[in-house]
Amino acid sequence: MKVEILDRTLKKIINNKNKMVRNYGHTNAKKIIQRYNELTNIPNLELMIKFKVGRCHNLTGNLKGKFALDLEHPLRMIIEPIPHNYKELKDIIAVKIVSLEDYHD
Fold first, then answer.
1. Cα torsion 8, 14, 17, 20: sign
2. Prediction pTM value
3. Which domains does the chain have, with CATH numbers?
4. How far is the C-alpha of 66 from the C-alpha of 87, rounded, in Å?
5. Is the peptide bond before 81 cis (omega within 30 degrees of 0)?
6. How many Å from the N-terminal Cα to the C-terminal Cα in the chain?
7. CB-based contacts of 85: which residues, under 8 Å, 6+ apart?
8. CA–CA gap between residue 89 and residue 27 (Å, rounded)
9. CB 60 within 8 A of CB 19
């Protein structure tokens, strides 16, 4: 899939391993790189969910329409499909990374 990161600060962190380690620790830095590579090497979101890559799952509530990938608990990588008006998960061939956060409050 094509992966975009629109937030400039987040993009700088994800593109710099030292910044990732400083902000999220060694384990999460490795997981962030792993998840990013998984996203860029799979054709569509349907396969991510079907094969439970990163335990990819859709979100509800105020994060409805977005999906989460596991990092080190409780941190998650939040992604959003591009475009938003897809008919089936196999149609999602591009996503944007929205945030790296713990939404379990």
1. positive
2. 0.92
3. 2-101 (3.30.2310.20)
4. 15
5. no
6. 30
7. none
8. 30
9. no
Cβ of 66: how many Cβ atoms within 10 Å?
20
* CB contact set of 92 (below 8 Å; sequence gap of 6+): 1, 44, 45, 46, 81, 82, 86
Over residues 17-74, the pLDDT tens digits come to: 999 999 999 999 999 999 999 999 999 999 999 999 999 999 999 999 999 999 999 9
71: tokens are 């990092």
> Confidence class of residue 83 from pLDDT cuts 50, 70 and 90?
confident
For residue 10, what are its two tokens? Answer: 């987040």
Residue type, 49: I
